[in-house]
Amino acid sequence: MVENSNSFETEYLISDPKILVVGCGGAGNNSVDRLHRIGLMEAETIAINTDRAHLEGIHADKRVLIGKRITKGRGAGGHPEIAEHCAEEAREELEDLLRGADITFITVGMGGGTGTGTAPVVAEIAKELGSVVVSMATIPFAVEGRARNQRAEIGLEKLKRNSDSTIVLANDKLLSIVPKMPIDQAFSVMDQMISEVVKEITEAITQPSLINLDFADLKSVMSGGSTSTIVYGENSANDPQRVVAEALSNPLLDIDYAGATSALIQITSGPELDIRTTTEVVNEFTQIMDPGANIIFGARTSPEYQGQLKVMAIMNGCDLQCNNLPGYQMEALPSGVKQREVPMTSYAVPIVT
Ligand SMILES: Nc1nc2c(ncn2[C@@H]2O[C@H](COP(=O)(O)OP(=O)(O)OP(=O)(O)O)[C@@H](O)[C@H]2O)c(=O)[nH]1
Ligand SMILES: [Mg+2]
Question: Measuring from each residue's beta carbon to the nearest atom of ligand 1, which residues come in under 6 Å?
Answer without folding.
Answer: 25-27, 30, 50-51, 75-78, 83, 109, 111-116, 138, 140, 144, 148, 171, 187, 190-191
